[in-house]
Amino acid sequence: MKRETVVVLDFGGQYNQLIARRVRECGVYCEIHSYKTDFEKIKALNPKGIIFTGGPNSCYEPGAPTYTPEIFRIGVPILGICYGSQLMMHLLGGKIGRAPVREYGKIEVTVDRNSRLFTDVSEKTICWMSHNDYVEEMAPGFTAIAHSDNCPYAAMENKELNLYATQFHPEVLHTQEGQKMLSNFVYHVCGCAGDWRMDSFVEQSIASIREKVGDGKVLCALSGGVDSSVAAVLLSKAVGEQLTCVFVDHGLLRKNEGDEVEAVFGPDGPYKLNFIRVNAQERFYSRLAGVTEPERKRKIIGEEFIRVFEEEAKKIGAVDFLVQGTIYPDVVESGVGGESTVIKSHHNVGGLPDYVDFKEIIEPLRDLFKDEVRKAGLELGIPDYLVYRQPFPGPGLGIRIIGDVTAEKVKMVQDADAIWREEIANAGLDKTISQYFAALTNMRSVGVMGDERTYDYAIALSAVTTTDFMTAESAQIPWDVLEKTTSRIVNEVKHINRVFYDCTGKPPATIEFE
Ligand code: XMP
Predict the structure, then answer these.
(1) Does the model's pTM come out above 0.85?
(2) Local confidence band at 2 (pLDDT 50, 70, 90 cut-offs)
């Protein structure tokens, strides 16, 4: 599959994935590669342009990330951002030093609008700076095309070699015209046509999967989550009944979720694939009986999942391909964090099954970011509620029940969670909250219902806002929503007599309540 590609060379900056996202928003496919990637490999990608990212180091420090200067003769435009711009100057004979005034935050920059990088950008524009070092002297052949009060070389160009450098970060939203600058680079400097679209992704993937699979057999572990659902539909459009999906219902899914997955992927659904639902609830409950330690529960659920999947796979016999729902953030090599390409352990599988007899793995989504996976899902006609599903941990409700897991407790948490989700949606809050669910605390306490004393469980409600799930804040839920949810839960769910709302953020808590 031939497509225009821009390569982001990763020097360990925190916004590197964002650069790739912004380039893709311009309709140009973009890949991130570590600065440790061999030059020949980068050349073989035949990029239309290259972007050097920022990074935390000083380029004159011993051992700081660097790259062969040969790259500047590769014959395609290069844009260096922050550390990337300093490195470019450093390698080409300029001088980098500690800036007398450290710039951090939104800074007004004056740009030269005659540069192709700044076509249609305002002469004075707000840019995001975050640097200790700066360019003291430009490398020969460069001219300054932007400056700020404290930074004489806020952007530079070498027209002859098609090299561009910005001290600021065009990829972050705080740089008000940053997207315009990146689009100028991609279109006017690199000459891209910009024909990367989700519909062409879907079409091209289907064609290339068909070619690869031929008349082979394909096996997919379907969890009902976004990634595995999109992967399964893509495969089914490509190879139809050559695909078998195994859906293990471990009895720890949200209320009605197993049936919803079956309705979409099963024999009455719109897709022509072989669908096997394994109702393994009892197996999981019996393995979990009496186990209270959360890590132990996770381990048991992960292992049991693999066993069940393997047993089904054995019945099917040898297959040619195993589908994994790996997505791009799982495989990006980090510039500083080492080179290993991580293969995502399927979020339910927790590792590759050992005994499944297959020749090759297919990872149809490994080039996509999460929201691109969602777009592909919509493109493929997958229902909205599946495409926009909240994150849900592989071990499911098993880790949203504090203490031991029983069928009765699973039912309590499922019912309470369904009410909470319904009330959040009724209040129109579902689009603004990143993740929300109910968990069963292991606490029982005395209450009174009617005229009777009760000694029942407490449910904890959680709702968080976050962009990256690494940190999160507890969402501010209007009191009437909490009140109504509480009243419904204690009335409708047996053995619950108290409801708490979790106000803790992450850190110090985690998002899951386990
Ligand atoms: P924590 O609880 O670590 O969770 O703050 C961060 C995000 O990851 C999700 N999560 C998981 N997702 N398998 C998954 O696919 C898991 O085992 C798992 N554990 C936590 C969690 O729901 C939150 O979105």
Answers:
(1) no
(2) low
